[in-house]
Structures are given as structure tokens and as C-alpha cells.
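Q: Give me the 3D complex with iron/sulfur cluster.
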Amino acid sequence: MDEKMFCFQCEQAANGCACVGNAGVCGKSAETADAQDALTGALIGFAELLVELGQPIQPPQALLLLEGLFTTITNVNFDPETVRQLTEKVWEAKNAAFATACPAPAPVGDYDMKQLWQEPDEDIRSLKSTVLFGLRGMAAYTYHARVLGYTDGEIDTFFCTALSTLAHEQDKEKLFQLVQETGLMAYRVMELLDKANTTTFGDPEPVEVPLTIQKGPFIVISGHDLYDMKCLLEQTAGKGISIYTHSEMLPAHGYPELKQKYPHLKGNFGTAWQNQQREFEDIPAPILFTTNCIMPLRPSYADRVFTTSVVSYPGIVHIGESRDFSPVIAKALELGGYEKDTLVPGMNGGSTVATGFARDAVLHHAGEIVEAVKAGKIRHFFLVGGCDGTRPSRRYYTEFAKLTPPDTVLLTLACGKFRLNDLPLGTVPGTGLPRILDVGQCNDAYSAIQIALALADAFGCSVNELPLSIILCWFEQKAVCVLLALLALGIRGIRLGPTLPAFLSPGVAAALQQKYDLKPITTPEADLAACLGSHAAD
Ligand code: FSO
Ligand code: SF4
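A: Here is the predicted complex, encoded as C-alpha cells.
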């Protein structure tokens, strides 16, 4: 293989295969891809050393592993220089760990990622890649919990052991087992983040969020990090600046400690990440990216973009650990916002969207929901969610939602929700229950699982026996982490689209299909009929 780069970690991988030229479809340069490979190789070498030392991983070491893995997620970091700086930090930490070890262990070099990308056995390459990409997604969620003060030593240790296993394990059975262990740990990570978010900011409550931007200075905040959100709200309070969420930040409106405490959190700007280049065109306000998905910047708004945490883009002001957002605030005041109230409509032309239907809010109505099912008012539940993306075939998810009959409920989450969250589907007839329930961000798949488990408990059946169909859209590595968690919990029959991951070899895809009945989406009509048909007797 003499390509300049090799990357096949996301749904956009060129030709459904891999990005191999001078740049990826996402805009990542070969130089950045190379730096990210070097960083990952250094992280694996570091993890191997830590495992060899056999001592509990220290918090700064764990944080470094998380930052390193998070940095390599799709649409997080486009700056090779910051990636190289992080690699140097990993080397320094590794040298420090080595120097203090007594007796001195055998030296461990960096892992060469070409060994993985050029692994001759496609199933081994596939299984190892699946674990690595799942770990990257998990790292992001663990990082968000950590900045809120929530950690778990077992999770930190798992990052070490799993990464070091990638360097040497060649047994397919053991690697398949590692995929499942990664899924179970992903579930634990999402549980930790749920605890961090809900303990810090309260249980989300249903709220109707306007898509109209009020006149005057405002800031748009994108990404998943609620700690960044809190810091920004604190620093802008009383300054005459409104705050609008973007993409995966929308569910922040549901958290009482954010929404109720900071009335200048006014609404949501725009839709899912892939529309940002169009929606941010000439925007009279700054945009703060706290995580992915940032896209290559267009000149019309590049001067008003800011990054924080592990997000980085060449030439763009980065707000470091201080989380001092003064430059963002100054930019908002300088640009001044719209001169009159301006609607940025949803993908179906809507002017408001609802969110905040996380586990606590939904389960508050559990009795009502169970009664409605028993009385035949609710026939079926669908979990239609995951990440959005550019592929036109993603229209499937809007079409699917539109086709669902009125006596069904759609749970949704993550940025894929923007395909359907402004559809006027109203409430389930004979009940006050909205037909679309936005559970939250992609990590709130944990919350959706809790809802499913509680319903299964109420009906005295397993989740797989519920009148529930799961239709997921995936894009990047957090979605891989969520999917692995669902599979590890034994959830069968998930439909996945718009395409299956390029890193799943035919052998591994077949194994997943056989064990979990994982299947690709087909057409909205056929899939809907199959979902409803499979529970026709309910
Ligand atoms: Fe979307 Fe991007 Fe949440 Fe992802 S904004 S695609 S899975 O980063 O994280 O759903
Ligand atoms: Fe290609 Fe996705 Fe990798 Fe970007 S992250 S280089 S689009 S596979």
C-alpha cells in the first residue's frame, strides 16, 4: 500500500471503501491523517507500557488517552500541528512512566498503524478497527463525564487493556470477544455520562425550542459538551447576548439547571452538522464548536468560528482549558446579530422543535404509556435516530417517519433527529403523548435503553419482545460505540443505514448478522411493513 493516507472510520469513506488520496471526503488532509495515525500509535504504545507496569492508571494518564482518542474522531481536529503536539505529550507521559518504574520494564515503542491498516487477514483488520473506532467514541463520552468530575477507574483501565490488545492479539475469537467487551464498557461509559449530566444539570424536562433567532447579538454553540455550555452561559449572563444551540447541543434546553437558570438560552440555530456550511453563510454571530462535527470552513464565516477542548482547525482561535470565552463574547457584540427576528427553519420547514424526553420524563408517564398500549392506542414504538450526514439516501429516515401510522411513537436521538423532529406529527390519538419524543444526544442512547428496559419490565417481556423497532443512522465513531453497546446488551434486529461500515469485513458483518440479526435498511415502505408485521399479533 503506497497511498498517502488510509482512513475508513466513517460512513463517508470514499467509494464506500476508504479515503486514500491527498485528503479524505471530510476534508482531512493526508498530513493530518498521518499525524492522527502517529498519535494513535503512540497511544497504543503508551497503553502497552501502562499494562506492563501493572499499576493503576493515574488520572492525568487517563485524560491523555481520552484526549488522544477523541482528537482522532471524524470532524474533530483538522490541525496536524495540534495533533503532533498531543503526540509529544503522550511521549513525555510515557517517558515519565518508564522513568519511575522499578524494576525498569522492557522499552515499548510506538505501534505502527500500518500494521493494522495493512493487516492481511481482513477479519482481524475489521475486528481490531471496530474496537479502535468504538474506543474513540467511548473516549469522547468519557471525556464529557470527566470534565464534569465523573470518573470510573474500571473504564480507564479498559482503555489501556483494549488498546494494548490491539497491538498483539491475532486470535479472531478473542478479538470478537473484545468487540463485545467494548460494547459492554461503552454502555457503562454512557451510564456514567448520563449520571454526570443529570446530577449536574437535573433530569431533562420536555421543552418546545424556537428556531427563530431574535434580533440582537447572539452566539451559536455546537457539539456535545454541556460543561462548555454551562461556562458560556455563565459568562454571557446579563450581557445582552442570546445563546442558541446547534446540532447535538439542542438537548441542552431540556436540562433545568441550564434552561431555567439562564433565560438567555433562547433557542436553536439550524439543523444537523452537514448543513453548517450553508446555514452559517454570512451569519452575524460567532459559532463555538465544543466537539464534532466541524466541517472545513468557508470564507464567509471562517472569521467568526471558535474552537475549544479537543476541537481544532488551522488558523482558528482556540479557547484552551481556561474556558475563557471573552473573544467569542467580543465577536458577538461586534457582529451584533440580525436586525430583526429571523427564522432558520427545520429540515421540513418547521419553526419549533421539542426535546427533553429523556428517561425520567418518559418514564414519568410509564403507566399511561402501558395503558395506552394495552388499550390498543399505541401499536408500536420506533427508535429512529443516530447521526446525520450528506448522503441523499438519508432521506429514508424522513420518509420512514412520515409513513409511520398515528398509533405509533417515534423515539429519536442524536443529530439524525433533524431529519424528522420538525414534522407536524402531533400526538397519539386518544392520548396526550407526542408522537415524536427526542431523548437527547447520541450518548443518550443510554436513556433510550432505560426506557426500553422499563417498558419490557412493565410488560413482563424482554426488550427484543417489545413492539419496538430500532432503525439507526450512523456516521462516525460515537455511533460505533453506541451500536456496540446495543449489540452487547443482546438487542437484536437493529436496522442500520444508510450503508454498513466499510470497516466491517464480509465475514464480520455476517457474524454480526447471525448473532444479532443486524441488517441494512432497505426502503421505508418495506422496512415499516416488516416492523409492523413482525408484531402484527400484539
Ligand atoms: Fe452527530 Fe457529529 Fe452525536 Fe456524531 S453531530 S455525527 S455520532 O458527532 O456525535 O450525532
Ligand atoms: Fe474519510 Fe471519514 Fe476518514 Fe474523513 S474520517 S478521511 S471521510 S473515512
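A quick observation: The pocket of iron/sulfur/oxygen hybrid cluster (ligand 1) is lined by residues 247-248, 273, 292-293, 387, 414-415, 441-442, 475-476, 478-479 (CB under 6 Å).
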